[in-house]
Amino acid sequence: DGGITQSPKYLFRKEGQNVTLSCEQNLNHDAMYWYRQDPGQGLRLIYYSQIVNDFQKGDIAEGYSVSREKKESFPLTVTSAQKNPTAFYLCASSISGPPTEAFFGQGTRLTVV
Amino acid sequence: AQSVTQLGSHVSVSEGALVLLRCNYSSSVPPYLFWYVQYPNQGLQLLLKYTTGATLVKGINGFEAEFKKSETSFHLTKPSAHMSDAAEYFCAVSPTGFQKLVFGTGTRLLVSP
To answer: Strand, coil or helix: what is A65?
Structure first.
C-alpha cells in the first residue's frame, strides 16, 4: 500500500544532542513537508521541499535542518539549537500541482529528557 | 498572507446531535480549503476539500462543509454525531496554485453518550 512512513514513533533525546527523524513516502509525490504540532497551536510549517535537492524554510525553521537527496525521503534533524524541541512532528507529501491535498504520516513524538 | 481561524478550541455534543465546527479564513486569492481529522497520537486524515465548483462539499464519515465566499467561511457539519467522531479537527487553507497549507489551531470534538 502507498503511504508515508515516519520513524520512530517515539523518540527521547538528551539536551544538547542532535536527532534525526525519518520520513519516507512511496506515493511518487514531488512535494514533502515537515510540521510541528504543539497543544493549542495547530500545525506549524518547519520546512518544505517541492523537488529533489531543493527545500525552503517554513515559519519556524530555526534549530532544524533537512535534506532532500531522494524523491522518497525527507529527513528532519532537530539540532541542539532548537530551544524547545519537545513536540509531535508530522511529515506530509503532496503532488506538485494544485490542489495541494497533503497526505500525512503517523507522526513522531519527540521528548527531550 | 493567508490565515485560518477556528472558533472554539473544544466543542461538546451529545451522541445523535448536530455537529458544527466553525472555520473562517483569510486569503488574498481564491483559496482551496480543507478539513482534516486527527485521532490521538496519529497523523491527519483528509475529511473533505473545496477547490472549485459546487460550494457544498461532502466528505467521509457523513461530514460536509459549505464554502461561503461572502462570509469567508468553511464550516464543517454532520447531522448526527457518533461516539467515533470524537477527535481533533483542523481547517486548512491553500492559496490557489501554491502548495503550502496553513492550518488553524484545531477544534477538539467531544461526544457524550
So the answer is: strand
